C-alpha cells in the first residue's frame, strides 16, 4: 500500500475545477476521462469493445468516441484491472457497470429567503409503513405522492411534512450505498440501512427506484421527488458522505489511483472515521472530486443544501472551496456538517472541525454542547441533562451559552438526530419514574427552546410527536418496524404537532438578534430575547413570557 500524498498535483494546477471527469457527451461525440496518475496503460471498455486511452495532462487519461453514446455501458481497464468510473453518474444495479447519461438539469427553486427550519428524514422511513396510504413504499416516488392518508384520515408522506411548516427537508443518504441489495427483497422488514456506506458518490440509490435495473429510472424518479418537494414549498438538503467509502479494496477510487484518495500511515489505512478508512480531502484531486460532486448535485438535481457527514475528517480549505463553488450557483444553498474533532490530518492541514468554525464562514456545525446540556451526552446511556432532571448550574450555563450563540458560532441547534436515542426514548430511559405525560411535556419544551436560539433549527423527523424507536439507540440497520414513521402517533398527539406547527410559523419570520441572560440557576434560566423576557424551567416543564406569565409560549 502506498503512502498518501505521494502523487500530489500542484495546488495551482491549471483547470483543476474546470476539467471534467467521467463520460461527457459533446457535439457528436463522447469523451471518457479518468484520473490515473501512476498507470502505465489505461483502456476503455465500451459494450464489450476495447479502445486505447491516451494521457492528456498530468495524471489524466482520455478517449474520444464518435457519437453521443447515451445509455452505453462502459468501464476502464487500468494496468489490466477492470474498474468502474469513480465519477460515474449512472450505473447498473448494485454499483454495477457505469452508464453514460445525458444531463437534463432540474430547474432550481428561487433562492431561499427566511429562517431555515430543517427536518431530517429517511426516504424509506417516511414511506414504507403498511398503513400510510402511500403506493410507492420505500421509494423516491413515495415521497412525491400527494393526498395520502392513514385509514383514520391522518395526512402522510409529503403532505404531512409540508403541513408542519418546516422549510427544508434533509434526506439521509440518497446516493448509491453498498449494503442494500437493490435487486433483492425490498418489502417491509426485508432490508434496511441508513446509507452511510458510500459506493458511488454521484449515482442515486437504486433501492429507492421502482426499477433498480434501469440506470435512468433512479435519476428520473429522484428528480420527480425533488420537484414535488419544491412544488410543496420545501427545499431539499442532501446528506453527503465523502469522508470514507464502504470498501477501499472495491472502490474505483483505489483502482484508478492506488494510495492517493485515502490517508495512510506506514502503508496502512488510517481510520479516523471508525469504519476502516478516511479520505484525504487535502489531496487536490479528492478536493476536486468533492467540489465537482456537490456542483453536479446542485446543478443536475437542484439540491438546496448539503449536510457533510463527519465533516471534521475534511479540511478547512476544501470546505471553503465547496462554499465558494456553491455560491456561484445560489448563495442561499445551506452547508452544514458534523464538525467533530476527528481524523488524521497531515501536518499543516487545518481540520474542518467546530474549533475552526471561524475559518469557515457560512458553514454551520452541529452543536453537541447544546444537545448534551439538554439531555446528557448522547453516547452515555444513562446520562441526564437539564431537561431530564439534572440540577446543575454549570449545565444551565452551558445550555444558555449555546442557545445564545456565545459558544459555538454558526450553530446547528438540535436535540436529536438519526444517530442515538430519540429524545422520548432517552428521557424514558433516564427518568423511569416519570409519567409518560410529563416525558411528552419535557420533550415538547426541549423542542420549543430550539426556536428561540441563534443558529439553524434542526428537527429529527418525528420529534414533533415524540418519536420512539422502542429504545433502539442505533437503528441504522434495524428492521422497518423499528424505523418506519408512525403517522398514527402524530394523530394521537395532535396537540403537540399543532404546537410544533405554531413554532415553525413563528420561526419562519423570526431569528433572534440579541439574547442576554438575566438569571441562571441550577433550576431555571431567565433570559431576554430581543427585549422579551422568557423563563425556561424544566421542573415543572415550562417556557413562559414573564410579561404575560399566564401565557405558556408553547401555546
UniProtKB/TrEMBL annotation:
Species of origin: Corynebacterium gerontici
Domain of life according to the entry: Bacteria
Record's protein name: Pullulanase
SMART domains per record: Aamy (SM00642)
GO terms of molecular function: pullulanase activity
UniProt KW Hydrolase keyword: yes
Family: Belongs to the glycosyl hydrolase 13 family.
Keywords, ordered alphabetically: Glycosidase, Hydrolase
Top enzyme category: hydrolase
Gene Ontology biological process: carbohydrate metabolic process
Pfam families recorded: Alpha-amylase (PF00128)
Domain Glycosyl hydrolase family 13 catalytic: 148-501
EC number from the UniProt entry: 3.2.1.41
Key word Hydrolase present: yes
Annotated CDD domains: AmyAc_Pullulanase_LD-like
